[in-house]
Specification:
Radius of gyration: 24 Å
Largest sheet: none
Strand content: under 5%
Structural class: mainly alpha
Shape: rod-shaped
Distance between the termini: 54 Å
Number of helices: 2
Amino acid sequence: MSATIHRAPTGRRKPVNLSLNEKLVERARRVTPNLSGTVETLLTEFVLAAEAKRRADDTALDQVIAALNAHHEQHGLLSDEFCDWL
């Protein structure tokens, strides 16, 4: 992940219960001295990526809506030819 993760050392901690694969947790404990910190870092990366994707999706949708609005402004709606009241 290219985003730098900044975790405040004095940030409040909240105990949570997670149900994780027991063998995976055993393996993880062999490769990291701080399982909670590792999970927090990985969760932070996940959240940052998900938020960035949502912003990108929102931007793309805004661009599509703007293009459709511009097309309708310039050419009218496709249904205009069937409307007698316009």
